[in-house]
Amino acid sequence: MAKISINFNDTVGVINPNIYGHFAEHLGRCIYEGIWVGEDSEIPNTGGIRNDVVAALKKMKPPVIRWPGGCFADDYHWQNGVGPREGRPQGVNIHWGEVPEPNAFGTQEFVRFCRMLGAEPYIVGNVGSGTVQELREWVEYCNYGGDSTLARRRAADGSPEPLDVTYWGVGNENWGCGGSFSPEDYGTEFRRYATFVRGFGKQLYVIACGPSGNDVEWTVRFFRKLKKDYWDFRNIHGFAAHYYCGTAGTSTVYSEDQWYELIWKGLRMEDLVVQQRAAMDAYDPQRKIGLIVDEWGTWHPAEPGHNPRFLYQQNTLRDALVAATTLDIFNRHADKVVMANIAQTINVLQAMVLTDGSAMLTTPTGYVYEMYAPHQGGMAVRTTVETDTVPVVTARAGSGELPFVAGSASVKGKELFVTLTNSHATQAVSLDVELLAGAVANGASARVLAGDIHAHNTFEAPTALTPVTMSVDARGSHFSVSMPPASVIALEVTLS
Ligand code: AHR
User: Fold this and answer.
1) Its pTM surpasses 0.90
2) How many Å lie between the centroid of ligand 1 and the Cα of residue 456?
3) Which of 72, 96, 173 is the pocket-test mutation for ligand 1 (most atoms within 8 Å of CB)?
4) What's residue 210's pLDDT?
5) How far is the CA of 264 from the centre of ligand 1 (A)?
């Protein structure tokens, strides 16, 4: 037995659709095979971009996609990825297996991929091994609407009109693979780069590199540096942390305890969101600079038989629970988080879809994104949950209590959208839903993703785990939902 109370008088804020963002890096088979197969491929494609992947991702309504990395971004020189494909240089991907980088997928291909999905492109510039000039010229190539050599190059590459890229990152993980900077040194670099990242008539959204996990010290030292030099936070709109909850066992082999452990580690995202925003509030009390989590997710040992540097992992119902509980955190803190990008879209880490040559499947995590899409742009309303918990003890990440039931709620007019998880590995939960402030339900539709805790999709059984409809009799201000063990539920309630 558990209970969720939804208080319509207590609104949190509009859920920024960008919380449902993605991340695609030149890493393993994410870009090459996962997105780009080339026009001559036997895999059905549109201008080189595979159709099955686009169709599957479209159902998830991705609002924004971050590219080209990741660590790759700070060794990427954008000029290598424009112009006629046959003339593009072949490089080496130094971070991810030292494999050849054909540069067949560059700026034009990326923006085209985004537009096919209805997503905004988010481009990460190269601070670690690049130059201010390179980034400044990349923006000009993409966005300048007048006559310049770079605008002409863009037109010759197939886009007479500006590509209209709003989101620009100034480096990636600059405390690590992006140049091993201290927060103060990165602060100096950031300022220099951001001074020259100009909109060319368009208001850009410039994103600074935030901490590794919930490293509050990085945040304080970075903002103190900008403040100290009286820079007044010019041309910084977002600040992006990364948090990977890691693994417990492997992607598909884990005990019940490890099932709970990983979901619990995923929930540490809530500490990050609250504490990072509090640290930012000290410098930016009006929240003009948005907190972003532009890499997050599970990180299991790579699947046997695959290049370990390709970070290819299976994806089970446990990953789906991590995705769902994390997205619920972002929804519940809609006043604090403006964007989040799960790592990564295809074939890498906690992917939405997996491919094997011409075959493709949607993962349990991908289905969570489909199920949660109606939250995008909704008004988050405060929820209170009463639930049993299970103790979790980890080797290195501390210990605590994992609540079995969690969720979030948002409203759009007369539609209430509630997402729920039951993390109990073996027991169903009867959930009492209470609508406060005089709200009354007048019917609902629901979908559930549930199964054995190890359930996942394979190329032999690609639809072994998919969401199914469930019936919920939602009438009045109280109703009940039967939550199967190990389940994610999406409930659309019509209010009278
Ligand atoms: O997502 C894989 C890698 O994880 C990214 O390249 C890097 O930013 C992070 O460490």
Assistant:
1) yes
2) 24
3) 173
4) 98
5) 22
Distance separating alpha carbons of residues 340 and 342, to the nearest angstrom: 7
Q: Taking CB atoms and a 6 Å cutoff, what residues make up the pocket around ligand 1?
A: 25, 69-71, 172-173, 295, 343-344, 349
What pLDDT does 75 receive?
98
Q: Work out which ligand 1 atom sits closest to the CA atom of 25.
A: 6
Q: How far is the CA of 71 from the centre of ligand 1 (A)?
A: 6
Domain of 73, CATH number, reads: 3.20.20.80
Q: How far is the CA of 296 from the centre of ligand 1 (A)?
A: 9
Helices within 236-363 (DSSP H only): 256-267, 269-281, 317-332
Task: Report d(CA 55, CA 35) in Å as an integer.
Answer: 12
Same domain, 338 and 417: no
Which amino acid, one-letter code, is at 186?
Y
For residue range 383-432, what is the model confidence (pLDDT) as tens digits? 999 999 999 999 888 899 999 999 999 999 999 999 999 999 999 999 99
Please write the tens of the pLDDT for every residue from 262-318: 999 999 999 999 999 999 999 999 999 999 999 999 999 999 999 999 999 999 999
Those residues with Cβ within 8 angstroms of residue 260's Cβ, 6 or more apart along the chain or in another chain: 390, 392, 402, 423, 425
Domain that holds residue 28: 16-376
Catalytic residue among 137, 261, 295, 370: 295
Same domain, 260 and 281: yes
Burial label, 24 (beta-carbon count in 10 A; 0-12, 13-18, 19+): buried
Task: State the pLDDT at residue 231.
Answer: 74
> Do 483 and 346 share a structural domain?
no
Considering the candidates 25, 173, 189, 261, report the single residue annotated as catalytic: 173
Last residue of some domain: 376, 403, 433?
A: 376
Using the 3D structure, point to which of 376, 408, 430 is the last residue of a domain: 376
Q: State the CATH number of the domain containing residue 421.
A: 2.60.40.1180
Task: Give the total number of structural domains in the chain.
Answer: 2
| Residue 173 a catalytic site member | yes
Amino acid 265: pLDDT: 97
Joined together, the tokens standing for residue 243 give 């948090």
CA distance 292 to 207: 9
Same domain, 24 and 125: yes
pLDDT at residue 232, rounded to an integer: 77
